[in-house]
Amino acid sequence: MGKYIIAGNWKMNKLPSETYDFVKEVAKATEGAKCEVVCCTPYVCLAEAVRAAEGTHVKIGAENLHFEDKGAYTGEVSADMLKDIKVDYVIIGHSERRQYFAETDETVNLKVKKALEKGLIPILCVGESLEEREAGITMDLIAIQIKKAFAGIEAEDAKKVVIAYEPIWAIGTGKTATAEQAEEVCKGIRDIIGQLYCPKCAAEYTIQYGGSMNAANAEELLGKDNIDGGLIGGASLKSEDFAKIVFSVK
Ligand code: PGA
User: What ranges make up the beta strands (E) of 21-167?
Assistant: First the structure.
């Protein structure tokens, strides 16, 4: 299946002054990893993170970007700004941004397109709430999120997008989706991609699971056929925990 990627999502944690040492720690703890290792950090930590990752295997990502190139958008950060400081990845459409910052499927689509245009690798997040799961509409909802996020994106570009399946009810709650639940949806996502583009190329996409993934459950989740990595919140804040997840990719 796709290339394995384990990405940390620091969210609004860690200070710029802690960043250099911590990224160095992650680089050391994950040396010899059999997957891509990414730290996604707050904007103010990015420059230090990039400096620390230089010459190591660790890649750095942002947690958001704006879809316009430049202009009067107080408080926002553009793709060019991220590229300028040598950021490689950017998380787009995280459920916390959809929930608290009015991110919509439309802005997610604009951001994915902008990231691709500027040569950033988007980590596109999709996922259902507990009510949606209980109503039995998980796959319908995720199909809509995926189709809207990929609207107007050509096949050649589309396969650069990393997709993270993150059930909202499993994020930061300690409640992980079972490996079977996660696999079922990740396979469903691959099928949707296959329908949108071509069934054969769907195998090349990296589809991650995220939501309370940790050192104890990573191996089972990552052992599933359609789970090619993880987007890790809480467990990415301690280098030993994060490294255990990284080394669960065999
Ligand atoms: P969590 O967060 O690992 O703390 O559940 C995952 C995420 O929101 O990306």
Answer: 36-40, 58-62, 89-92, 121-126, 162-165
pLDDT in tens, 136-177: 999 999 999 999 999 999 999 999 999 999 999 999 888 888
Task: Give, using CA atoms, the residue closest to atom 1 of ligand 1.
Answer: 233
Its pTM surpasses 0.70: yes
Phi, psi of 222 (to 5 degrees): -75, -10
Task: Count CB neighbours of 151 within 10 A.
Answer: 15
Q: Taking a C-beta distance cutoff of 8 angstroms, is the pair 8, 40 a contact? A: yes
- Answer yes or no: are the C-beta atoms of 196 and 205 closer than 8 Å: no
- For residue 91, give the ligand 1 atom closest to its CA: 9
Ligand 1 touching residue 172 (CB < 6 A)? yes
**Domain parsing of the chain, residue ranges:** 5-246
Compute how many other C-beta atoms are within 10 angstroms of the C-beta atom of residue 147: 14
pLDDT, tens only, 66-97: 999 999 999 999 999 999 999 999 999 999 99
Phi then psi for residue 184, to 5 deg, are: -60, -45
By C-alpha distance, which of 9, 204, 195 is closest to 90? 9
Fold that domain 5-246 belongs to in CATH: TIM Barrel (3.20.20)
Q: Is 212 in the pocket of ligand 1 (CB under 6 A)?
A: yes
Q: Which atom of ligand 1 is nearest the CA belonging to 231?
A: 9
In angstroms, the CA 200 to CA 79 distance is: 31
